[in-house]
Amino acid sequence: MRKRKVPDVVIRRLPLYLRVLSDLDPESSSIVSSYELGARTGVTPGQIRKDLSFFGVFGKQGVGYEVTILREELRRILKLDRVVNAGLVGVGNLGQAFLHYGADRQKEVLSREGLRMRAAFDQDERKIGGHVAGVEVYPVQRLPELIKELPLMIIILTVPAEAAQVVFDRCVASGVKAFLNFAPVKLEIPPGIRVRHADFTLELESLAYYSKEWEEDEGEKNFQSRTDQ
Amino acid sequence: MRKRKVPDVVIRRLPLYLRVLSDLDPESSSIVSSYELGARTGVTPGQIRKDLSFFGVFGKQGVGYEVTILREELRRILKLDRVVNAGLVGVGNLGQAFLHYGADRQKEVLSREGLRMRAAFDQDERKIGGHVAGVEVYPVQRLPELIKELPLMIIILTVPAEAAQVVFDRCVASGVKAFLNFAPVKLEIPPGIRVRHADFTLELESLAYYSKEWEEDEGEKNFQSRTDQ
DNA sequence: TAGATTGTTAATCGATTAACAATC
DNA sequence: TAGATTGTTAATCGATTAACAATC
């Protein structure tokens, strides 16, 4: 009964396909081929077909994929066919920034799929009870309670580095399985829990390697254009 | 004379090693082994040694690595031993958020290495001439000019999706080789240019796949704990 | 010296790509 | 039917891991 594990690298491409399918809908054709999907996502047609094959058979040979059907299938696979509530812990500069960002995106896309920024948490008395970008701020003490009641399925960690592990552990204890972590720390992660790290300091530092050397002429061109992540 | 290309996945781990080495310095020992580095970064000791071997020989067999030496070598490799200026285009919600984030991090780490948020750009008359988190906002028209004069080696794109390709192309034309792109679009990227995508919408949507199903009991446990990116 | 740890090679693992039979 | 495009298998590519000789 156990399906073979789907590689995470495949899971990470699915939202990209979904985005293109959602943007595609209005424009005429109700059918799309892996070639067109490839052109619009930057993924090779073969890889798209391989990725989809992990989940079933969605196309017609000689024809392509029905846009609405494939879109609904991807939404179902990603669990975006239901409401998915996210909570954010740590309403500092970064936390507020993310809430504003989320509010911007929510209008466009997040809520088109089932994602909702549902609650924020902080220690600071002055922030509690307030709203940031339309999201209410609760005391961190209520985290376990609200994880279960709302419920919250994804937690975004925008707490200071020192607090990250403690908050993370508390969320895990309350049943959360998926995290987006902005704190620049190595978390101790138990089995079955998925954490994505968003650490811009590391991103920028690694980009410095590829940055132009303005002083002298650049002799060394031993890299190629590539889109990462 | 041409070195073999260093895989990007290796480049992305170097800042992590550098961070640990920088944090390590005060604490007693001036020597660190690949085993300790591994414990602190979550990378296997063998992989750390392999990664470093792309750039030369930095350790002593039977002993380990001199902390200060390895740190300086990594800073040099990543070009963080000199000043690296970054510019940001698009001072909307997300852009301002990033500038505040950068200001926070700058105090701690970014400036410890050579990274500086040096300039911001926007179209909006009301923003131009102002400062956000200590960074001056210039009109986008001055982008090519200031890229060359300051100069700016890394560009952070926080413009709306529609504007991203145009702004990107203009920066490339002015010689920028490294980008951090927050706009949710597939950019057309010429050879020799490195772009990292920071697209939280996609991250959250892929996390939904791993999120707990609260309705029914979760029968399917076909994933493992893993830290990605 | 004996013990420890590097640097590196070879083996393994996993993901991408090529290719094509099936079939609409 | 002929042309197109899927689904899938086999080949390739690249990255990680294991293992160990070199040597401090």
List the helices and strands and how they pair.
The structure is a homodimer of 229-residue chains.
Chain A: H1 8-24, E1 31-32, H2 34-41, H3 45-53, E2 59-60, E3 64-66, H4 67-77, E4 84-89, H5 93-110, E5 115-122, E6 131-132, E7 135-139, H6 143-149, E8 154-157, H7 161-173, E9 178-181, E10 194-197, H8 200-210, E11 226-227
Parallel strand pairs in A: 4-5, 4-8, 5-7, 8-9, 9-10
Antiparallel strand pairs in A: 1-3, 2-3, 6-7
Helix pairs in contact in A: 1-4, 2-3
Chain A binds a DNA duplex (24 and 24 nucleotides) through residues 7, 9-10, 33-35, 44-47, 49-50, 52-53, 57-65.
Can you give me a brief rundown of this structure?
2 copies of one chain form a homodimer. Chain A is of the alpha/beta class.
Outline the structure in words:
Two copies of one chain form a homodimer. Chain A has 229 residues and is an alpha/beta fold. The radius of gyration of chain A is 21 Å and the shape is globular. The C terminus of chain A is likely disordered. The two termini of chain A are 32 Å apart. In chain A, strands 6-7-5-4-8-9-10 form a seven-stranded mixed sheet, sandwiched between helices. Chain A binds a DNA duplex (24 and 24 nucleotides) through helix 3 and strand 2.
